[in-house]
Amino acid sequence: MCQKNKFKIALCQTLVEDNKENNIKRVVKLIEEAVDNGAKIISLGEMFNCPYRNDAFKIYAEEEGKSETLNILSSIAKEKGVYIIGGSVPEKEGEKYYNTSFVFDKEGKIVGKHRKVHLFDIDIKDRVKMKESDTFSYGKNITVFDTQYCKVGIAICYDMRFPEIFRIMVQKGVKLIIVPAAFNYVTGPAHWEIIIRGRAMDNQVYFCAVSPARNENESYLAYGHSIICDPFGKILGELDEKEGILYSEIDLDYLEKVRSELPLLKHRRLDLYSVNEK
Ligand SMILES: NC(=O)CC(=O)C(=O)O
């Protein structure tokens, strides 16, 4: 029996190739396996149906309401009675494109939609270059939604580097944060784990980051290493770079214990923190 304050989460780290149908087939297979293993909230990685390349985003983009990918996720969420965090997909709306995560509840309804708010425009010389803003427009919202278990916050990849949005999520009552993300072979080893442990520990939340698996035939080499960290900053599990599913129990009683024993959120000096920054 699933208690409301303890439940199993599954992070599906799938390989992404230049073939949408195959990408979706892989995702469906792993979601079904996660359901069979008792997961109640299941998340996919950033760009799970499309290679992480500017020249692919517009070709793979779909519109909400007419999207084959979203229809499939909605049907499985409903059929299996689970929440699905639909990683992210290239979304088209009018003339604009977004890197968007759609969230489905147990009835298959969209209950959350996050458009990446910080676009990944970087140039680490001779190693990794990406300019998402060549294709995507900026999202404008911080995204939280309710589940039967707790409030959940969603961000996408590069958003993870900006701590302000997670503190706002926590002020809104979030206890679990899920970030579909595709760090790479350079920034992953350097920053992935330290960011995730820091965000989990400062905000005293469960923090999950879900990557695609690494595809050595692609130009962008994803880091993989999907990970779950508890509210004390302890890593509960981490994959390597290959396809797989990471499971963990989320224990909201433990979260309350951490918050009451080490009351960081209560000890904040809100009178000191505001700055007029341009
Ligand atoms: N891919 C991203 O959006 C971010 C990333 O790889 C990083 O911040 O590093």
From TrEMBL:
Domain CN hydrolase as annotated: residue spans: 7-252
UniProt keyword Ligase present: no
GO biological process: asparagine metabolic process; glutamine metabolic process; oxaloacetate metabolic process
A Pfam family annotated for this UniProt entry: CN_hydrolase
Annotated transmembrane regions: none
Keywords from the UniProt entry: Hydrolase
One GO MF term: omega-amidase activity
InterPro entries in the record: C-N_Hydrolase, C-N_Hydrolase_sf, Nit1/2_C-N_Hydrolase, UPF0012_CS
Hydrolase in keyword set: yes
Domain of life: Bacteria
Family: Belongs to the carbon-nitrogen hydrolase superfamily. NIT1/NIT2 family.
Protein name: Predicted amidohydrolase
Protein species of origin: Tepidibacter formicigenes DSM 15518
